[in-house]
Amino acid sequence: MGFLRLLQAVLLAAAAAAAARAPAARAWGEEGHYMTCKIAEGFLTGEASAAVKGLLPEWAVGELAAACSWPDAVRRQMPWSGSLHFADTPGDCKFSYARDCHGTKGEKDMCVVGGINNYTAALQDSSSPYNRTESLLFLSHFLGDIHQPMHCGRTADLGGNTIVVTWYNTTKTNLHKVWNVNVIETAMNRFYKDDMSTMVNAIKHNLTNEWCREENQWAACYTPTTTCADKYAEESAELSCPAYVGADHGSNLEDEYFFKALPVVQKRIAQGGVRLAAILNRIFSGKNDDRIQSS
Ligand SMILES: [Zn+2]
Fold first, then answer.
1. Could you tell me which of 67, 165, 183, 255 has the fewest CB atoms within 10 Å of its CB?
2. Domain 34-293 has CATH 1.10.575.10
3. Is pLDDT above 70 for 289?
């Protein structure tokens, strides 16, 4: 990824300045990223957990989840990183790396799949010139982004950003934000006492019950021609198509849409967490997880 490499000097300077303070923006939204990374923390080996803690900025106080929104907070300071948060498609419910992984001006590899591959490779290579703290935070954040279906939505509406809708007749929002923030906040409010750890525990409970049979296959993905990240983007692109149904520009979304979206949101957060942990375990404990190697 030559383009990223060229920007490394800019990146390091900006990151050094930005890493000095905690992110302020609430931007998945902040909750989605927090939960994805919190779930990942629970699946890390002791060795990987220690390595992750060693790389975290001081302000994260040893908690990966606390730092997972950092790439959103510094997006304006690092405009080149903007296209690494998503991988939009023409709207055919499919993701194709060759066709879809590029920046807004066609820069090759500048999409969320390229970002995940790049920062995974950077962390795996101890001689890589990339800043390791920053590589960890980008990788952890992008694992969240790639699982949010509207981050692999249609290019024409910027992944739902230009589709303005109302949420329960009260909040003016857009379809991208509905998936980033509104569904999660409504769920927290209705079912989880506005408490993120209660929602994280509910998702963890599903992992050991409803999803327990499929969960051990989530991290299995390598094929001779694609990487894991290709598969995650393909899944999101497929999930984005039904997400557009019943959500036209100007519409009002409420229970019917919310109850259709919530199980998808919860499962994607769980998958993002489990897969992030598998990647970090592979990088930091040299553990070649059988689940990743198989199939
Ligand atoms: Zn993002």
1. 255
2. yes
3. no
